[in-house]
Design goal:
Elements: H1 8-13, E1 29-32, H2 47-62, E2 67-72, E3 78-90, H3 96-99, E4 107-118, H4 127-141, E5 148-152, H5 156-164, E6 168-170, E7 173-180, H6 181-187
Parallel strand pairs: 4-5
Antiparallel strand pairs: 1-2, 2-3, 3-4, 5-7, 6-7
Length: 189
Amino acid sequence: MTACAIPCVAIAKRPAPDRVAAGPSETPRVEPLRSHHIRTEFSSGVEPLDRYFRTQAGQDARKNMAAPFVLVLPDGTIAGYYTLSATAVPAPELPADTIRKFPRYPLIPATLLGRLAVDHRYRGQGYGRFLLADALFRSVCSEIASFAVIVDAKDDDARRFYERESFLPFPDQPMKLFRPMADIAVLFR
């Protein structure tokens, strides 16, 4: 039995996103970034995100600094990506009602959704939410302890996107948001 907060029966009914075979008529899939993925044509319109994806994401994966995942369309085009990694949050940064529930540790383990980007050609098609849902699913099913998924919104549009998806801002850092794992687990029951 895994430490996943989701009942094993619920997990068994959902195929792992990276195990769904895609053919010409099938749906998009999310899978770990590999060397065969062509990243040169990806353009989110946000230069730091594009540069990271083209030049750094593969290295981060090989060095276990981040786990990049890509949204692959049936024709093999990459429509988006995100990264996950472990992080820790200083307890005093969290809302008082949140830290009251935890042991008195100086650092609280969490999962960092470090980057999330959709190619500008595929915006407005729900791929950002699709990638976010996949990231949340992978995070909640991880056997590594984590109280929440953390994001650092790059701008107000990103912050509003995460707030619409029930992320809560840190009290003194409105661009840093979190969504508790207990809340995420309910999504996949």
